[in-house]
Amino acid sequence: MCRFFSRLTAFRGLPCAVLAVLALSLAVESPACALDLFATHEVTAQFATPAGKPMANAEVRVFAPGEPTTPVETGHTDAEGKFVFPADRDGLWSAEARTKDEIARVMIRVGGPAAPQPSRIPPAVVIAGLIGLLALAVWYRVLRLRNNRPR
């Protein structure tokens, strides 16, 4: 493709450079690469006794909104009494931790009013794209002027 543009000596490397910039912009990692496709939130619940001591290694059951009898996630807390679970929908989630002596329950509101999302396209990519489009327009104009010139 670059051989096609070699007739224009002033713009010889420009189309190849534009293609390289566009290819590089596609290779830039976006924030969406790190997201779990099925979980919309990662929730951390910390359980403690009435005295304030963490409930270490407690058995945990998590219940989704609208399903108060069927646990959707089970496991054990860590040494600090924390348990992390994915929440795949918004609403009021409940979690219950049990040790041999105590039971703790917590209600967690997941989601809420949607916050405005920042643009996911980096400004450098937008500027590079606009410069590429401008260069393409100038190149097209020069090519049309050369072809319409009387010989």
Structure commentary:
The structure is a single chain. The chain has a 4-stranded antiparallel β-sheet, with no helix packed on it. The two termini are 27 Å apart. Strand 2 (59-63) and strand 3 (71-76) form a beta hairpin. The chain has a domain at 38-110: Immunoglobulins (Immunoglobulin-like). It is α+β, with helices and mostly antiparallel strands. Helices cover 26% and strands 26% of the residues. The protein is rod-shaped.
* Percent strand: 25-35%
Helix content: 25-40%
**Average pLDDT, all residues:** 80
How are the strands of the biggest sheet laid out side by side?
Answer: 3-2-5-6
Shape label: rod-shaped
Q: Main β-sheet, in a few words? A: 4 strands, antiparallel
Spell the H/E element sequence.
HEEEEEEH
Give the CA-CA distance, first to last residue.
Answer: 27 Å
Could you state the CATH homologous superfamily of the domain at 38-110? Answer: Immunoglobulins
* CATH fold node name of the domain at 38-110: Immunoglobulin-like
Count of DSSP-assigned helices = 2
CATH architecture of the domain at 38-110: Sandwich
Poorly predicted sequence stretches spanning 5 or more consecutive residues? 32-36
